[in-house]
Amino acid sequence: MLAPIPPRPGTRFSGWRIVVLAAIGLAMTAPGQTPGVSVFVDHLMAGLDLTRSEVSLAYLVGTLAGATAMPRVGRLIDDRGTRVAMTVVGGLFGLMLAAMSGVTGIITLTLGFAGIRMFGQGGLSLVSTTAVAPWFERRRGFAIGLSTALGGALLSLIPITSAFIIELTGWRTAWLVLAVAVWLIVLPIALGGLIDRPADVGQQVDGTPLHTENPQGRPTTGPAFTRSQALRTPMFWAVCGAVATTGMIGTGLAFHQIDLLGEQGLTPVQAAANFLPQTVASLTATLLIGSMVDRFAARWVLLVSMLAMAGAMVAVPFVSPGWSAMAYGMLIGAAGSSARALEAASFPKLFGIPHLGSIRGVVSAISVASTAFGPLALSLGRDLTGSYVQVLLVLLVIPLGIAVFGLFAPAPRHPAAANRPTQPGPRDPLT
Hints:
Shape: globular
Radius of gyration: 21 Å
CATH topology: Growth Hormone, Chain: A
Number of strands: 0
Structural class: mainly alpha
Number of domains: 1
Helix content: over 70%
Largest sheet: none
Order of helices and strands: HHHHHHHHHHHHHHHHHH
Number of helices: 18
Strand content: under 5%
């Protein structure tokens, strides 16, 4: 176990530094994220003599395999803290990226995808987004939204950098360069930067003075759901469904973006440039949603996310070069980021901090698994119909169904409070 960082009572509140470090950690998940992998797809097809559907299938199987580890990563966060978890996950993520440089066929490619999706898109994302929650209570939504937005902005630069490295060194060497980058950036953050909780350095949540009646530096009030208790609440599954929906459909659209927008008349350069409005909308939505979660009901944020996702799917046949393509990109970016920001910011308020890693680990597993189906579903739909439009119209039922379910899902109520007499009080903004 890593030795705790020596207490530094009286020093400046470290929470905002944790926000920045978590954002950098989130950015370094990029080589395991779909945009990061997408720049390698054509090179993998050519270098390994595989079809697009075969690469999509390898991505599906590898992603599903990678999803199985997320509950274990969540328990590791709860039991050993984010420092230990990021050290383990970051080290293994770099190892899996290095292994991608040696893939020789569909089997090794599938194993490689499993590793980078497990420790990058899943594990490192989970650790980074969970690290901020113990440091805030009153402005938790804003802090998590800020960290996610900063991380997303930095993450958007990695695919461009990766493409440049591929051009200079070739795709196999590019994987090795990314592995070294992860080790050089993530491991120092984990070993010397992250702090598990405020009390470890003599501080308190939100930076208020540490009180003797609350020596652990944690909120004195609030829920403390176990994982099994959280899984029995409808709101857990509503939010989880929103994250999975944007994960599945958004990943499919991103994975095939060049080809999909090419059908609508965009050149490869114009299609690639569409990631820019997606990124801008994603950053804006993340900041807004993080703040909104502190003030409004989760169900309304969920509704906005699902309507944005449905709107983007309906808009595909109307996209053309210019403003319509930009609007499409903004809808895609806003939908995905709002769902992820909702989950990261609302779950500490809904279910508490003590078992947050385990609870979010389940969401992460489902989210990672959902991203496996999007690329293959769109690829097979295009092969069967000759276009992506028909399969998107079929999939439209998913975001609309989740939106309706979320509107009627009751707010979580801790089982321990079931037998307590109800008393009038302020209404929880998340209910």
